[in-house]
Amino acid sequence: MITLSTAALLAFLLSLSLTPIVRSLALRTGVVDAAGFVHRKIHATDVPRLGGVALVISFCVPITGLLFVDSSVGRLLAEQREFLICLLGGSLIIALLGLYDDLRGADAKLKLLVQVATATAVYLGGFRIEFINFPLLGDSLGVLSFPITLLWIVGITNALNLIDGLDGLAAGMAFFGVVPMIILALADSNLLLGLITLTLVGSLLGFLVYNFHPAKIFMGDTGSMFLGFVLALVTVQTSHKSSVAASLLAPVLALGVPILDTSIAVARRAWRGRPLFSADRNHLHHRLLTAGLGHRNAVLALYAVAAGFATASVAITFHRNVSYALVLVCAAILCGVLMRTVGYLTLTDGVGGTLRVGAERRRQNRQLSLAVDDAITALDQITQVQELANLTGQLLLNEGFSYGCLALSGASTGSLSYVWGDGGSASKRRFVFELRGQDLERKGELVVASTDESEWADDAVNILQAYVTAMVTWLAQHSVEVGSMTDESVLLGNTSK
Question: Of 129, 64, 67, which Cα lies nearest the Cα of 91?
Answer without folding.
Answer: 64
